[in-house]
């Protein structure tokens, strides 16, 4: 085998043999030693260029061979006299022969040399020997000159490369060609030259011209061309969009019998295939960019041919090839790419690595069905999928809701004992969380530790996120504790998740603690963090901290976006503040933020809360004109208004419009419909809606049952209400605190206080034992609103001690007393005629409250503050970009204005009326006037009841002029407007019921005088007239009455008419009683 080694792999020998010297070495090994004189030279036609001067180690093949043989002279072998002429030319060009041809020559030499059939021609003639020696010396001199010239040429070219100057490099090359010195340049330097040209010459046309010239010069000087030069030419043609020319060069390469031997040699040919596959695979992409029609199907056919030829030439596709095919698959994904891959798969051209790339591409394009088919095909072809194939598929299955299939694959991975990593466990945790199997998800962390796989922050983040969505704050905090024990610091994602959790639970204190801890650990907050903080304050209806959050966000360099404004607008909407909501709506457009469906819905809700349905419906029309499709919530907001007004016809109209517009109703939609039917006592239609819900694949929830329970309680059907409650429990629909509040309040109203007390105790017990879902009842079960119905029932029945007992129980359970709780106790003491206790409770309430500005005064101050901010913005140049842009925005103005107000919560209007009534009964008129003035100066917004009670106290204390003034300014004018609206309605429409007309009158005017107020004033006037008739201080009383009549004529007329009407009705009632037998 030695001759094969020498010929096919000459690098193993220390000597450098080229051309015929390969065969000379073979001849030397097989030649009999006796026939080879050491002093005689063998006649040759050309001398060798290398002289063997050192001992060469030759392996002994048989007894005839010897080692460490060193000839005296250089060995010159041409072997014309040994080898037939047909092989001689091939031998001279042996460096460019294919492996098969080389093998044929070696076999020939072996057979003839072993049989000793080659004759030596010895020239013993001394003259001829001298001529031979002279010839050798001459050839050696020429070789030395050539070698010197080669070194000089190589040095010049290398130094020129170092300049990185294309002009200089190209000029040097051309001078070498002109001087005929290109033949001295090694082909590897030519390759380097072409590589430098490719890097420096950015003009594809110029680059192609240079490569074409170099190829012609190589051919002209008879230099051997390699695949590298061909690749440069192919690439240049492709850069110039000359794919046919590139294909011609590529086809000539493929005419070669052998394409590389070693992996490195094959790589060069593989690169040529990669370029052509890319060119054909992405040809349509280039054509489409130029506005020309693509040829996608033809391109895929060409790619298939090239890929097939690649396998025929025994070239293994490398990583670049797989990447190219993946990109082609992505580009042609919507154009027979899947069928193309199937064709390659049938030819067995797709290995496990390529299958993995195809799988990922299918998943990226959301073609889950084909991805599953591809995955199953991998297993059918015995291509074992690894963790990098399983995990992306499991992740996508979970995202598409196919949790069962994802769990099957997880089980399969465990059975196949696939090596898992941290990412795999993270995905497993996510899947188990989606399956609500939180225990198994938590157990996976223990499994990771047993396998010496360290969990990372994302592992714990997945688990915390699952607990957060389930509202399980305690379990989430336990995971945080475990992270701390393992010295893994929570990242921004975990902190934000915890903030979102406490925001959803309205636990503002815990939310703030998490955010404070985040800041202390120097973790930058992103927009989403501030957004959840903002939502938390929005749910808690804390305007001050909501706007302070916006200010902090802007100072952090984060600009508010649409959802920031949406959250704030919804906060104003919940308070019914249309002015603030509209100001924010207008400003966000000024800052280039386009309102979306949530913006319009929140603004519509603001006007609905303010009972301005005309403006709400106008906004609804504007929304549709702007191309924004209303959502289910948008329709629900409008429906809620008409439900409150008991206009079931309009509610049904909106519902039908939703169905026509293909807007899917939700549970709240059906709540509105049911509430509408229940308001007409049509419980049969309300219950029938449950079947309609089920047809739409909606499951009745606690809110649906609560509406029906409330309707049955209101109608007095307590047995049916109880049945619905039991049905909820049976179907594992957990009642909300509203459900309990409705049941407790309903039974308390009919005097079943013991049953209400039992329900309350049951609720408290469930909350303490933790048997009720935390997500529904954290911060809601033990809510003041759950205690107030029973407490109010005790108060109205005069059971002050029972009401006080609940008050103390709330304090024991840690339930914060809200203002309504104080109001109920005040009412209890008032009904028990304990007026001093009412006053003391009022003073206790005042410690927990401070009055707020009226809206008119508030927006006056806001306007002044905005102007001041704009002035400061011009003077301050040290602001950040975000601060500079948003410094004059309403977000900062509201923040500064609310932070300057020490507002906690204004007292309830009902509490103010109870306080006035109690002090009036106690004849403490000075205290009433003092408290009224304090509230008025603080901007407190008095309601109709407050004005009536205060005016009554003024009449009783005989401060008539002030009473008439307040009555005229705040009650009479509003009443007159209401009467006018009622008369207009009466003229245009038929009044169906007096009750409906009275409802219209109340809604058209928030302020109107009570009959008691007017009768008190009328009685006072009668008293004055009586005194005048009795002759007491006639002059002063007459003058006083005249002044009042002149200043308040409407009041005199109204009171006189009302008094006469009241007396007339009283006489009729008396006559009716007298006629009774």
Please provide a written account of the structure.
Residues 366-492 form the PROP1-like PPR domain. With 1077 residues, this protein is an all-alpha fold. The chain has 55 helices and no strands. The longest helix has 36 residues, at 126-161. The N terminus is likely disordered.
> Could you estimate the helical fraction of the residues in percent?
over 70%
Average pLDDT score: 76
Unreliable stretches covering 5 or more consecutive residues: 1-23, 28-83, 92-97, 114-127, 770-780, 850-855, 877-884, 896-904, 984-997
Give the C-alpha Rg. Answer: 49 Å
Compute the separation of the termini in Å.
Answer: 144 Å
Task: Give the helix tally.
Answer: 55
User: How many beta strands in the DSSP annotation?
Assistant: 0
User: What is the SS-derived class?
Assistant: mainly alpha
Basic shape: elongated
Summarize the biggest pleated sheet. Answer: none
Oligomer: single chain
Beta-strand content estimate: under 5%
Describe this protein with a few key phrases:
PROP1-like_PPR_dom, disordered N terminus, repeat, elongated, 55 helices, mainly alpha, 1077 residues
């Amino acid at each position: 085998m030695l001759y094969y080694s020498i010929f096919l792999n000459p690098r193993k020998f220390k000597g450098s043999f080229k051309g015929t010297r390969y065969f000379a070495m073979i001849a030397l090994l097989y030649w009999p030693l006796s026939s080879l004189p050491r002093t005689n030279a063998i006649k040759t036609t050309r001398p060798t260029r290398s002289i063997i001067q050192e001992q060469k180690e030759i392996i002994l093949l048989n007894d005839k061979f010897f080692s460490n043989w060193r000839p005296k002279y250089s060995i010159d072998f041409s072997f014309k006299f040994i080898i037939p002429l047909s092989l001689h030319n091939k031998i001279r060009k042996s460096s460019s022969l294919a492996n098969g041809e080389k093998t044929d020559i070696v076999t020939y030499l072996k057979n003839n040399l072993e049989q000793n059939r080659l004759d030596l021609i010895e020239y013993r003639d001394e003259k001829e020997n001298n001529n031979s020696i002279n010839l050798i010396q001459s050839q050696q001199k020429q070789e030395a000159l050539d070698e010197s010239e080669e070194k000089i040429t190589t040095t010049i070219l290398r130094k020129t490369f170092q300049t990185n100057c294309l002009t200089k490099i190209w000029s040097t090359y051309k001078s070498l060609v002109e001087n005929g010195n290109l033949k001295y340049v090694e082909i590897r330097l030519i390759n380097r030259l072409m590589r430098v040209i490719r890097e420096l010459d950015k003009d594809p046309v110029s680059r192609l011209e240079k490569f074409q010239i170099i190829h012609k010069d190589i051919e002209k000087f008879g230099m051997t061309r390699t695949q590298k030069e061909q690749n440069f030419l192919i690439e240049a043609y492709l850069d110039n969009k000359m794919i046919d020319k590139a294909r011609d060069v590529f086809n000539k390469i493929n005419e070669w019998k052998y394409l590389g031997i070693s992996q490195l040699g094959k790589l060069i040919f593989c690169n040529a295939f990669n370029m052509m596959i890319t060119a054909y695979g992405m040809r349509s992409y280039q054509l489409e960019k130029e506005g020309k029609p693509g040829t996608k199907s033809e391109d895929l056919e060409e790619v298939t041919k090239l890929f097939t030829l690649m396998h025929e030439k025994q070239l293994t596709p490398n990583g670049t090839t797989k990447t190219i095919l993946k990109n082609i698959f992505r580009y042609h994904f919507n154009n027979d790419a899947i069928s193309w891959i199937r064709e390659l798969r049938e030819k067995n051209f797709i290995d496990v690595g390529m299958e993995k790339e195809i799988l990922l591409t299918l998943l990226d394009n959301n073609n889950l069905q084909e991805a599953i088919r591809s995955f199953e095909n991998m297993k059918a072809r015995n291509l074992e999928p690894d963790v990098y194939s399983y995990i992306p598929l499991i992740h996508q299955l979970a995202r598409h809701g196919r949790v069962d299939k994802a769990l099957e694959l997880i089980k399969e991975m465990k059975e196949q004992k696939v090596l898992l990593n941290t990412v795999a466990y993270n995905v497993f945790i996510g899947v188990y969380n989606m399956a609500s199997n939180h225990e198994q998800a938590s157990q996976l962390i223990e499994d990771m530790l047993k396998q010496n796989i360290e969990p990372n922050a994302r592992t714990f983040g997945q688990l915390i996120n699952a607990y957060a969505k389930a509202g399980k704050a305690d379990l989430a905090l336990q995971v945080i504790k475990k992270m701390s024990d393992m010295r893994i610091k929570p990242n921004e994602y975990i902190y934000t998740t915890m903030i979102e959790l406490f925001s959803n639970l309205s636990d503002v204190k815990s939310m703030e603690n998490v955010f404070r801890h985040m800041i202390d650990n120097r973790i930058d907050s992103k927009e989403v963090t501030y957004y959840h903080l903002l939502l938390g304050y929005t749910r808690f209806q804390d305007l001050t901290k909501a706007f302070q959050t916006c200010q902090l966000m802007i100072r952090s360099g984060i600009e508010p976006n649409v959802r920031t404004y949406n959250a704030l607008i919804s906060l104003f909407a919940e308070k019914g503040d249309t002015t603030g909501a509209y100001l924010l709506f207008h400003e966000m457009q000024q800052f280039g933020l386009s309102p979306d469906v949530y913006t319009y819905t929140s603004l519509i809700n603001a006007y609905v809360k303010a009972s301005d349905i005309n403006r709400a419906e106008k906004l609804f029309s504007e929304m549709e004109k702007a191309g924004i499709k209303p959502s289910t919530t948008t329709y629900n907001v409008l429906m809620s208004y008409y439900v409150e007004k008991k206009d079931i016809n309009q509610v049904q109209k909106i519902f039908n419009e939703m169905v026509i517009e293909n807007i899917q109703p939700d549970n709240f939609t059906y709540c509105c419909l049911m509430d509408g039917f229940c308001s007409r006592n049509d419980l049969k239609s309300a219950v029938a809606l449950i079947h309609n819900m089920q047809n739409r694949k909606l499951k009745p929830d606690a809110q649906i049952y609560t509406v029906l329970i409330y309707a049955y309680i209101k109608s007095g059907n307590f047995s049916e209400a109880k049945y619905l409650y039991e049905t909820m429990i049976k179907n594992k629909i957990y009642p909300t605190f509203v459900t309990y509040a409705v049941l407790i309040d309903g039974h308390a109203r009919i005097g079943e206080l013991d049953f209400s007390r039992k329900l309350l105790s049951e609720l408290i017990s469930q909350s303490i034992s933790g048997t009720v879902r935390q997500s529904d009842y954290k911060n809601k079960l033990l809510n003041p609103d759950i205690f107030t119905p029973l407490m109010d029932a005790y108060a109205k029945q005069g059971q002050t001690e029972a009401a006080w007992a609940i008050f103390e129980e709330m304090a024991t359970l840690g339930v914060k007393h809200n203002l309504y709780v104080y109001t109920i106790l005040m009412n209890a003491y008032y009904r028990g005629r304990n007026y001093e206790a009412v006053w003391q409770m009022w003073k206790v309430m005042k410690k927990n409250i401070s009055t707020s500005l009226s809206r008119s005064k508030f927006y006056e101050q806001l306007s002044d503050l905005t102007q001041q901010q704009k002035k400061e913005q011009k003077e301050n140049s040290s602001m950040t970009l975000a601060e500079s842009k948003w410094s004059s925005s309403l977000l900062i103005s509201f923040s500064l204005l609310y932070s300057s107000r020490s507002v906690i919560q204004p007292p309830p209007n009902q509490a103010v009326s109870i306080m006035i009534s109690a002090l009036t009964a106690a004849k403490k008129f000075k205290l009433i006037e003092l408290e009224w003035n304090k509230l008025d100066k603080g901007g407190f917004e008095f309601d109709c009841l407050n004005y009536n009670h205060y005016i009554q106290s003024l009449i009783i204390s005989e401060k008539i002029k002030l009473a008439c003034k307040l009555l005229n300014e705040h009650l009479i004018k509003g009443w007159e407007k209401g009467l006018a609206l009622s008369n207009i309605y009466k003229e245009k429409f038929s009044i169906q019921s007096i009750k409906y007309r009275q409802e219209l009158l109340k809604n058209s005017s928030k302020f109107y005088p009570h009959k008691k107020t007017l009768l008190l004033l009328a009685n006072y006037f009668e008293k004055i007239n009586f005194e005048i008739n009795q002759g007491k201080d006639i002059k002063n009383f007459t003058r006083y009455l005249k002044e009042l009549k002149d200043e308040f004529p409407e009041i005199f007329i109204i009171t006189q008419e009302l008094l006469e009407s009241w007396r007339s009705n009283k006489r009729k009632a008396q006559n009716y009683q007298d006629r009774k037998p």
